[in-house]
Structure of Nicotinate-nucleotide--dimethylbenzimidazole phosphoribosyltransferase:
Amino acid sequence: MTDPAWQQPIRPPSQPHRQRALARQVLLTKPPGSLGQLESVAVTLAALQHSDSPDVDPIRIAVFAADHGVCDEGISAFPQAVTGQMIANFAAGGAAISVLARQLQAGLEVINLGTVTPAPLSDGVIDAAIAPGTANLARQPAMTSPQLQAALATGDRAAARAAEAGSRLFIGGEMGIGNTTSASAMACALLEQPPTALTGPGTGLDADGVAHKIAVIEQALQRHGQDREPLAVLGSLGGFEIAALAGAFIGCAVRGIPVLVDGFIVSVAALAAVRLRPELHDWLLFAHHSLEPGHMAVLTALDARPLLALHMRLGEGSGAAVAAPLLRSACALHNQMATFADAGVSGASE
Ligand SMILES: Cc1cc2ncn([C@H]3O[C@H](COP(=O)(O)O)[C@@H](O)[C@H]3O)c2cc1C
Ligand SMILES: O=C(O)c1cccnc1
């Protein structure tokens, strides 16, 4: 039997390209370091892409959608039917990520891994339904082992399509009412922190709603026990879209495509994927710091320095889409700025 996609080798970033990119940054007509994170991002992309002219275009955005059985516990401010309705909205072009993808001229695909309210079949939506949502993770494992493998493989296929399209940057988004409960539970298990530290309002719960959500997550963690193994955590506390994101990120690294990580839920998927494949860490750039309170702990665990903090808390990949132009700027500056020698500008005094 061949190994699953998420076990394929991940090539390391190119040290020669990193060294040449670092050397070039010093020659450009600016005080060394003055472009801050735009410099380090360009150097990272050069090393990842094994290129002296890093470039993030074309950009691929894949939004993974699925429902969550834990919605039975009343943990979201919105009804479960919104997941399927939003899939239709993504395809119709009216969702935030639809607008941002158009603005970026990025390829957008929506992958439906299973909703309770069936989304109408439409162009741009890939049907990869595993089940009509996960089981209620407060009371039983969210998914079976074959379901988990199917979700990981669905993510890997999205990475394969991105590679076939020549994509040089991958953004993963998610849609799934209830998925901040799943992501918070996963973060608690992976980071060994209590739900009080990592649980927030999601789409807009009030204080009583958050207290109830914490109790539901406590129940889920009690049921789950002490197992910190990432596949066990994903299968027991995850969602189909979260597992697919983990599979997609590993699949991108396997195929040499850097990933721009979105908000809280996507970062939890990234954390699980990095625990599974530590070499993935090199391939992740972090877009923004979400308002969801658990995000900071997840970013810290990933040693991430997100580009933006815009008080966003939407998901869908929207924070990453908003940050993508910064990567374009970083590459353009790296590739196109004149050197001191070329421009006849004097360098720093001794
Ligand atoms: C209209 C609408 C569009 C969204 N787009 C992303 N989310 C975000 O909110 C959900 C998670 O929050 P919770 O765990 O509180 O349900 C996810 O679907 C996430 O992507 C949305 C939520 C709504 C209501
Ligand atoms: O940060 C996120 O990804 C997020 C936060 C709240 C709701 N949905 C997504």
About this structure: The chain has a mean pLDDT of 97. The beta strands are 59-65, 107-112, 125-127, 169-175, 259-261, 284-286. Residues 59-327 form a domain with the Rossmann fold fold (CATH 3.40.50.10210). Residues 76-78, 82, 86, 174-181, 202-203, 314-316 surround alpha-ribazole-5'-phosphate (ligand 1) (CB under 6 Å).
